[in-house]
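Many groups now describe folds with learned vocabularies. In that spirit, our science desk offers one protein's residues alongside their backbone shape tokens.
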Amino acid sequence: MTTVVQNAPNNAVALTFSTSIDTLATGAYSVPSDTVNNVSGSATTSYLTVAVRLAFSAALTAGAGTPYITLYMLEARDGTNLPNPPGTAAAAPSPSARQVTMPLVASGAFSIVDFPEMEVGSYDVAFQFLNESGVAFSGTVTATAYFGSPEV
């Protein structure tokens, strides 16, 4: 996995995935994003919070029922290894993974999904999505992590 080093306060990091999330099927997990370095050190500022945004190039219409998208934050607490599962697979993450679920309006259009701010520790992290929107992702999908509240 590639490590992205962040240096600026309130840094926005474009999340990259080894397999595109542009066509993520409904009911499917994405592969985890590449690792983002959030470890205090000479080249990196450690941040205390992170919020994530999914943006779609064209609006999608959620399915019926109770559609939602879940974000998982995978933490490399040992400094190197992400939890396994999912490892690098498009599979269900470990039950210990932090998660936040964003409900969607049934049969409503959406083009941006903002996940609320979460606390993040001083270790490498990756992000993964579960698409239960009732529709496959399409167009260009971008995921951005916004790190804030630099540790002092």
